């Protein structure tokens, strides 16, 4: 596993069509909105969750790619149980549940063990309650909130269901229904929130110096980019609609500390509207045009002039 | 102030969590000295130096927004890791997010921008050959070129900070609007605010100071001064 020697900054562009990319628990699961600008938001933790899920799918059970923060059932455990049934081994199970590291050296061993085995601890970090200090692993990969490039207008779609959940519900509906109308019986109404179309932009950072500490290597970085590129392909659901990563543009610095401010690099990538094949800035002048409804309604320019020395632009997608 | 630096930092959001409102996080109105120190350390730090924040210039009036997220309710238990290490397998060493979920709201700042004014002292840990000039040069060189150890953040890591060095001869950036909210006209008392956490002492007590926002600037007391309360 080669250690990382370069700082990376990346821009991730993904879109959603007729779906809800990230619900807001405060607003009855409506798509997240920035209340001041009406731009849509997707939280950092939502993107990280998808990266974890992808790694779990793509590298299930391989050495060093376990996922600590899991969703749902743990398949590995089930596999292991099968093995145990086949080959009952006599490993002594530690009954001592309450243990704290005695000293810093032991806390370090524990941290290293976690980093070695778990991809998400190695990548995003984790807080370990090790009695000494909070034993934090600060991961090299930092993700930020994604926000849509244009304001979004979420729509509320009412849907109906032809079945009732329980007997009681069915009776209740039957009483209220007009006689003889078969179709209104035991019907329930539901709600879906969708964004007709939106293009989201997220920024991320990979610190080579923190990667040294957690053992995050080149292979992990490739896996991270692979996950960012195809995580939506494995996250299909009724709520999500059609989501896809459209662009992943990586700035690679030729040293660990970097050769330019991240914000200046990100500013080189501008997303505008594609109006009759022309790039147009997103501002009030395009208000009279029809809203964007597909990725081809957007245009992307990458300013490659006068790049700081030692910075490469790599288009992963 | 011979070794002073000025660094402009800004971002989309920030959350400088108040220690008394940690569960449903509520941010302070302005950046704390301890968060400012963390930003400087993300650019350059060695055990030989200690950053001391002198003042925080607030360039944007504080505006708040609420964000609610699903968070996990527990940390990684060291004991479980140890037993897994002994056993040599990872069974049971996972957290199921669906079963251990907490929804927490965070009240965060929107589009903040600050100038951190700071200097550093030598701690004497680096041996005799450490000079202030060397570290000052390193910091200035890195900040000028946008280099950093890791991308600094505004309170929490999901809110990345953009930064830019303000050259010694350059004028101080002006706030976007000189409103009473930024303490123009009458000073604004922000109450007691976290100064920093004392990492040297056992149990790591927090230290506070009375933050006054006057003409867009919060003056930060020096370490050891009477204004820093424990």
Oligomeric organization of the protein chains? heterodimer
Total count of helical runs of at least 4 residues of chain B: 3
Biggest sheet strand line-up of chain B = 9-1-8-3-12-11-10
- What is the overall pLDDT average of chain B? 90
Strand proportion of chain B, as a percent range, falls in 25-35%
Give, in order, the helices and strands of chain A: EEEEHEHHHEEEEEHEHHEHEEEE
Radius of gyration of chain A over all CA atoms, rounded: 24 Å
Mean pLDDT rating of chain A: 85
* Beta-strand content of chain A: 25-35%
Q: Tell the overall outline of chain B.
A: globular
What is the CA-atom radius of gyration of chain B, in angstroms? 20 Å
- Can you count the helices of chain A? 8
Approximate helicity band of chain B: 10-25%
- Following the backbone from N to C, one meets helices and strands of chain B in this order, namely EEHEEEHEEEHEEEE
Main sheet attributes: strand count, strand direction, barrel closure of chain A: 8 strands, antiparallel
Number of strands of chain B: 12
Structural class of chain A: alpha+beta
Explained architecture:
The complex is a heterodimer of chains A (317) and B (230). Chain A is α+β, with helices and mostly antiparallel strands and 317 residues long. Chain A is 26% helix and 31% strand. In chain A, helix 1 packs across helix 7 (218-230). Chain A is flat, with a radius of gyration of 24 Å. The two termini of chain A are 25 Å apart. At the A-B interface, helix 1, strand 5, helix 2, helix 3 and strand 6 of A face strand 4, strand 5, helix 2, strand 6 and strand 7 of B. Strand 5 of chain A pairs parallel with strand 6 of chain B, so a sheet runs across the interface.
List the helices and strands and how they pair.
The complex is a heterodimer of chains A (317) and B (230).
Chain A: E1 8-19, E2 23-24, E3 30-31, E4 39-42, H1 44-58, E5 69-70, H2 75-86, H3 104-117, H4 119-124, E6 125-129, E7 136-138, E8 141-143, E9 146-151, E10 155-161, H5 167-176, E11 188-206, H6 208-214, H7 218-230, E12 242-253, H8 262-266, E13 269-275, E14 278-280, E15 298-302, E16 311-315
Antiparallel strand pairs in A: 1-11, 1-12, 2-3, 4-9, 6-7, 8-11, 9-11, 10-11, 12-16, 13-14, 13-15
Chain B: E1 5-10, E2 13-14, H1 33-43, E3 49-58, E4 64-72, E5 76-77, H2 78-87, E6 95-96, E7 101-110, E8 113-122, H3 132-145, E9 162-165, E10 188-197, E11 206-214, E12 217-219
Antiparallel strand pairs in B: 1-8, 1-9, 2-7, 3-8, 3-12, 4-7, 10-11, 11-12
């Amino acid at each position: 596993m080669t250690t990382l020697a370069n700082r990376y900054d990346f821009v991730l562009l993904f879109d959603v069509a007729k779906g809800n990319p990230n619900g807001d628990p405060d607003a009855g699961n409506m798509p997240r909105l920035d209340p001041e600008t009406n731009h849509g938001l997707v939280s950092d933790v939502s993107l990280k969750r998808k990266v974890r899920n992808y790694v779990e799918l793509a590298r299930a059970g391989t050495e060093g790619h376990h996922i600590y923060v899991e969703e749902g059932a743990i398949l590995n455990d089930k596999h292991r149980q099968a093995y145990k049934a086949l080959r009952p081994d006599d490993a002594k199970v530690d009954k001592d549940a309450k243990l704290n590291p005695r000293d810093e050296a032991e806390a370090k061993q524990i941290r290293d063990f976690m980093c070695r085995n778990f991809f998400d601890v190695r990548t995003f970090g984790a807080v370990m309650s090790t009695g000494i200090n909070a034993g934090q692993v600060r991961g090299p990969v930092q993700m930020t909130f994604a926000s849509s490039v244009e304001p979004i207008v979420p729509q509320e779609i009412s849907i109906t269901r032809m079945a009732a959940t329980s007997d009681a519900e069915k009776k209740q509906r039957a009483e209220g229904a007009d006689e003889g109308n078969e179709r209104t019986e035991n019907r329930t109404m539901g709600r879906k929130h969708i964004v007709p179309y939106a293009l989201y932009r997220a920024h991320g950072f990979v610190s080579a110096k923190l990667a040294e500490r957690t053992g995050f290597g080149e292979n992990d970085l490739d896996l991270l980019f692979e996950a960012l590129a195809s995580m939506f392909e494995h996250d299909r659901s009724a709520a999500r609609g059609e989501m896809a990563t459209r662009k992943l543009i990586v700035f690679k610095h030729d040293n660990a500390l970097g050769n330019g401010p991240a914000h200046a690099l990100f500013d080189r990538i501008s997303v505008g509207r594609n109006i009759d094949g022309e790039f147009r800035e997103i501002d009030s002048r395009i208000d009279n045009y029809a809203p964007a409804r597909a990725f081809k309604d957007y245009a992307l320019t990458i300013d490659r002039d006068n790049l700081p020395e030692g910075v490469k632009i790599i288009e992963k997608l | 102030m011979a070794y002073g630096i000025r660094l402009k930092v800004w971002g989309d959001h920030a959350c400088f969590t108040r220690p008394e409102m940690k569960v449903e996080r509520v941010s302070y109105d302005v950046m704390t000295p301890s968060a400012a120190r963390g930003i400087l350390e993300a650019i350059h730090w060695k055990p030989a130096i200690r950053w001391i924040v002198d003042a925080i210039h607030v360039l944007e009036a504080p505006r708040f927004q609420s964000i609610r997220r699903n968070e996990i309710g527990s940390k990684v238990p060291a004991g479980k890791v140890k037993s897994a290490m002994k056993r040599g397998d990872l069974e049971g060493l996972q957290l199921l997010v669906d079963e251990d979920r907490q929804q927490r709201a965070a009240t965060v700042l929107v589009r903040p921008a600050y100038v951190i004014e700071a200097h550093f002292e030598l701690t004497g840990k680096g041996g005799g050959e450490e000079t202030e000039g060397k570290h000052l040069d390193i910091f200035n060189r890195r900040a000028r070129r946008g280099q950093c150890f890791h991308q600094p953040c505004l309170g929490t890591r999901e809110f990345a900070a953009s930064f830019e060095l303000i050259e010694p001869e350059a004028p101080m950036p002006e706030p976007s609007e000189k409103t009473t909210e930024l303490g123009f006209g009458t000073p604004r008392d922000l109450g007691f605010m976290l100064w920093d956490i004392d990492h040297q002492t056992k149990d790591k007590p927090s230290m506070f100071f009375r933050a006054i926002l006057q003409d867009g600037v919060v003056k930060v007391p020096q370490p050891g001064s009477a204004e820093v309360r424990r």
